[in-house]
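Final report, closing paragraph on structural work. Over the funding period we assembled a curated collection of sequence-structure pairs, and we close with a single example.
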Amino acid sequence: MTRIAQILVAAGKGARIGGDIPKQYRAVGGVPVLKRTLDATLAHPDISETVIVVAEGDPHIAGIIAGYDNIRTVTGGATRTASVKAGLTALADNPPDLVLIHDGARPFVTFGIIDGVIEALSEVSAAVPALPIPDALKSLDGQSVDREQLRRVQTPQGFHFDKIWAAFQALDDEASFADDIDVAHAAGLDIAFTQGDPNNFKVTYPEDFAKAEAMLTTDTYIATGTGFDVHRFTEGDVMWLCGVPIECGFTLLGHSDADAGLHALADAILGAIAHGDIGDHFPPSDPKWKGASSDKFLLYAIEKVMERGGILQHVDVTLICEKPKIKPHREAMREKIAELCGLPLTRVSVKATTTEKLGFTGRGEGLAAQASATVKLPA
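Its predicted structure, as stored:
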């Protein structure tokens, strides 16, 4: 079984927030920020060991960790890089397989973020949750900067322990990096970006504490939407289904690429926020959508969820057909949908069934898809 440890970096003085208490020990909703972070991460079933990096002579940490098991504290250094190295050193005698390095002042981390990082580490040596930049960017001299080439990165940043430990050991004593993924990049490790979360912000400035307080007092609710789509078969070579090309000697007839799976899913997401259906936003009468890739419709629906302050939690697609065979393509479909939705694979379901030779799908005339989507929304 894979052993996963975490390092919580909490050695900062919190000078930007002001006052005598470092920011990680300031309360939000009556609970210190670091304790909220600790509770959120320790609740994850795959994290078995925790090292907290604190400032020398920290008078607050004892009250935070009282009553917890399998937690150690170590003294950090003058920089984040030195502090993380101290945390890694504490783990090196009995090294875990994977290590997650997380800011002690990010209390709103979710299982979804953690799961995404852990899953990515099955393919790469390092992983970091990231978010696109929605605003236009300018340099100080007024030149435009391509925001598509940039991402805002968050924590936890995950690594194969042996790889990141070797990278830190190779550093000079005075080395200082902005974050741990920078160290991985300098060491030439392969890195994956996973889905971040706008709520996973670092509590740093006074306005961040106000935002955190508001989040804790704002009610949310869970909404579920459903979608259904049908397309008939026609002559062709490649069928697009759930974002995956299937070479089966026929295709689906439609104005766009006729991807019934993504159409049903986009409608399910729009339904969860009561925002109509894809026909309202992408009418088949509009020639500009002729042959369009259906991932555009799905990404639009997800964007509308984000505009509402919502978080897509889980999706489920059922394909109803006699042909083509779905099982050989199912995992590729799950992976594509997970990529488009920014969800870990554990929150994406794709299933297939038949109608036992009944109806138009049973006669092999076409294909149907139904989907459901679960969204967390502010009240």
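Residues 220-378 form a domain with the 60s Ribosomal Protein L30; Chain: A; fold (CATH 3.30.1330.50). The mean pLDDT is 91. We thank the funder for supporting this effort.
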